[in-house]
Amino acid sequence: LANRIAIIKRGTLLATGTAEELKRKYLGLPLMQVCLARPLQAPWPQLDEYLQVEAHGEDFLEYRAVQPEVANPMLLRRLGELGAEVVTLSQTPQSLEQVYLNLVEEN
Question: Which is nearest to 52 in space by CA: 60, 61, 39?
């Protein structure tokens, strides 16, 4: 496996970097998802200074956080205060294929 990757389209260099650099630059911050055992009976906690909400439903929240080591415990604490049962908190995998498709679509 290569340490550095180059993405080329029709002889034009579109991007270079490590896998993590390319993912961060072209896909943004990691996408986190929290899933609950049952629908939340109150509005989702407002943590706008820590979370960038991407999507939500009655029993899930998808978000990005600049500092997940701060935001995740804070979110879990607030959900616990609301009596929510958290089933999972996980990072949604981001792939180099997504990077490639984003770059090819743009160019």
Answer: 61
Sign of CA dihedral 95, 71, 65, 60: positive
CA distances (Å), 63 to each of 11, 74, 75, 90, 91, in order?
A: 36, 13, 11, 11, 10
Residue 4, phi then psi, degrees to nearest 5: -120, 145
d(CA 64, CA 33): 9
Instruction: Give the pLDDT confidence of 51-78 residue by residue, as tens digits.
Output: 999 999 999 999 999 999 999 999 999 9
Q: What is the DSSP letter of 30?
A: P
pLDDT computed for residue 74 by the predictor: 96
Q: Are 59 and 36 in contact (CB under 8 A)?
A: yes
CA distance 34 to 27: 19
Strands 31-36 and 86-92: antiparallel
For the chain, give the mean pLDDT.
93
